[in-house]
Amino acid sequence: MNVLLTGGAGYVGSHVARALAAAGHTPVVYDNLANGHRASAGQAAFVQGDVADGPALLAAMRDHSIEAVVHLAAFIEAGESVVKPDKYFRNNTIIGMTLLDAMREAGVAKMVFSSTAAVYGTPRRACIEETDRLEPINPYGASKLCVELMLAGYAGAYGMGFAALRYFNVAGADPTGGIGEDHNPETHLIPLVLQVPLGKRASIKIFGQDYDTPDGTCIRDYIHVCDLAAAHVLAIGAIEPSRVKVYNLGNGEGFSVMAVIEACRAVTGEAIDAEPADRRPGDPPRLVASSRKAIAELGWQPKYPDLETIVSHAWAWHKSNPDGYGDR
Ligand code: UDP
Q1: CA of 278 to the centre of ligand 1 (A)
Q2: What is the pLDDT of residues 285-310, one digit of tens each?
Q3: Which of 86, 162, 236, 314 can bridge 244 by disulfide, Cβ–Cβ 3.0-4.6 Å?
Q4: Residue whose CA is closest, atom 12 of ligand 1?
Q5: Would you name the residues annotated as active-site residues?
């Protein structure tokens, strides 16, 4: 299948494009390069364009005979979304309609949508199921939930088919090399912790040590980016007309910020200084997925569920590419 990936030159997108190509599909990367990296698209067809630009999207879909879209382009920082909600609702939500309408015009009826665990807000139970209450506590989660609701409308009215994948905390890098995480500025925990042994920062700040968790720091469910990418390939194959299928993607095990720092110490063999800091606004104390549905319905089986493996693949990428793609 010819698959257009919005935000395909980003961290997740580059891994999804590689997984699609390995499965015999033809990825076409569509990215405005505001945060993405041209080099990460490798040999895949590349179109530089903005999701806000409907005519450019339509042309890309027609030029490349696109049959499905993976919509990854988005702003993704929960903390930032609390202070800049307009940025998140405009780019993540409103512009999403431009893409859906371009798809209708081009006759493209399938989409995999990058959603997020942030749609759940502060969960009421230990392992979140897809049917749990959707009560985002930050505009990032709300901006993605709005798109999920739009998908339901478009599926019902226009017969389009969707898979919404609710990502938990994506980390790691393709162990075969060449692609990895390179955000500027970086805000995610694992790459920031690894900046300490790389000599790029003196210490890591722990945002909040007074949460209601065993060690007082926030708990998250970390998923290897290659396992996440594999789920996209399976999800494309599972899309059915007039339906929105929703899947959590995590490993079902939570690790505290302290535990992640410990894993990074173990993998790198470095001491890694950590210092307490204030809570970051918009952070729920604990987010852990049940991915039973993805395992049962998609036949998804994570290859790298172990946190130390995830960290060691991230570390291999950062050590060989201390400046990421070197294009900023
Ligand atoms: N975190 C932290 N220090 C940092 C960056 C993140 O303590 O420098 C914490 C953050 O508050 C959250 C967890 O690490 O509890 C994961 O944050 P990240 O931004 O990686 O992902 P999120 O959970 O926001 O998607």
Answers
A1: 12
A2: 999 999 999 999 999 999 999 999 99
A3: 162
A4: 218
A5: 140
pLDDT of 328 above 90: no
Q: Ligand 1 centroid vs 306 CA: distance in angstroms? A: 19
The string of pLDDT tens digits covering residues 165-190 is 999 999 999 999 999 999 999 999 99
Which residue's CA is the nearest one to ligand 1's atom 4? 189
Q: Binning pLDDT at 50, 70 and 90, where does residue 208 land?
A: very high
Residues whose CB is less than 8 angstroms from the CB of residue 112 and which lie 6 or more positions away in sequence, other chains included:
68, 69, 70, 71, 162, 163, 165, 232, 235, 236, 239
Residues with CB under 6 A from ligand 1: 78, 169, 187-189, 192, 204-207, 218, 220, 257, 280, 283
Indicate which atom in ligand 1 lies nearest the CA of residue 117: 25
Average pLDDT of the chain to the nearest whole number: 97
Closest ligand 1 atom to 207 CA: 7
